[in-house]
Amino acid sequence: MTPKYKRIMIKISGEALSGGSGTGIDAATINSIAAAIKDTRDMGCEIALVCGGGNFWRGARNGLVMERSRADHMGMLATVMNCIALSEALENLGVPTRVMSMVDMPRVAESYNVSAALRCLSEGIVTIFGGGTGCPYFTTDTGVVLKGIEMHVDLILLAKNVDGIYEADPRTNPDAKKFDRISFEDVLARGLKATDSTAMSLLVDNRTSVLLFKAEPPENIVRAAKGEAIGTVLY
Ligand code: UDP
After folding, report:
1. Is the pLDDT reported for residue 120 higher than 80?
2. β-sheet bridge partners, residue 99
């Protein structure tokens, strides 16, 4: 099977690793995500990954009295923990990986370097980026768009808990129509929510296509890379 896209970026949220509990890492869940990533790579895709950290910590919603930047530093460290776990799950399946961090911690992960990352991708190494953007007050959705642009990916896959973008909230409006494709401008003009506003403005400026699709089941990653009509394409 030939993939539609040669190089893809996949965002794995922290919550997606938690197996429904919302916290921590569920072994069966991370292994099934790793298996889907392996199947996608076996088709010939070059794969970049960005992990979120919300299963361990979210800077803005931690309930403690903390300087926001310090709380966000903890969130970025959480993303690196998920990257390490995903890297190990992939290596257990025989998939070569490299973890690069936007927060320097050389004993734990390689510091991000654009040339090294591009080389890893072209050699078929699944390259996993931790630490989001490396800056507080951002999210990993912004990190994934930034890295997707820098890595010249053909498509950014944003796995969510909904199966695409609707003209209205499908929970309150069951007749709401799902878009198969929608432009960034149309999303903004209609006031629809696809991702956060920083990520959105980067997308508008750089015109990298995004597929929003349902994270469950993980095989959706393979379907998306094949170019099957799932989710909503933003262009
Ligand atoms: N974070 C940050 N800068 C970034 C990316 C993440 O400060 O560029 C912090 C922030 O505190 C965030 C936490 O890391 O709440 C976890 O990231 P995120 O909430 O995006 O993870 P996800 O919801 O995708 O699991």
Report:
1. yes
2. 128
What is the structure's pLDDT at 61? 80
- pLDDT, tens digit (0-9, with 9 covering 90-100), for 2-23: 889 999 999 999 999 999 999 9
Query: To which H or E segment does residue 214 belong?
Result: strand 210-214
Q: What is the DSSP string of 32-54?
A: HHHHHHHHHHHTT-EEEEEE--T
- Report the residue among 33, 56, 58 best suited for mutation to probe ligand 1: largest number of ligand atoms under 8 A from its CB: 58
Our mutation pick for probing the ligand 1 site, out of 68, 70, 140, 145, counting the most ligand atoms within 8 A of Cβ, is 140
Q: Is the peptide bond before 174 cis (omega within 30 degrees of 0)?
A: no
CB of 55 within 8 A of CB of 23?
Answer: yes
Model confidence pTM above 0.85: yes
* Cα distance between residue 138 and residue 196, in whole Å: 9
Q: Which residue lies with its CA nearest to atom 13 of ligand 1?
A: 75
Classify residue 204 as left (phi > 0), alpha (psi -120 to 50) or beta: alpha
Rounded CA separation 90/87 (Å): 5
Q: Which ligand 1 atom minimizes the distance to the CA of 11?
A: 24
Tokens of 105: 């911690």
End-to-end alpha-carbon separation of the chain, Å? 25
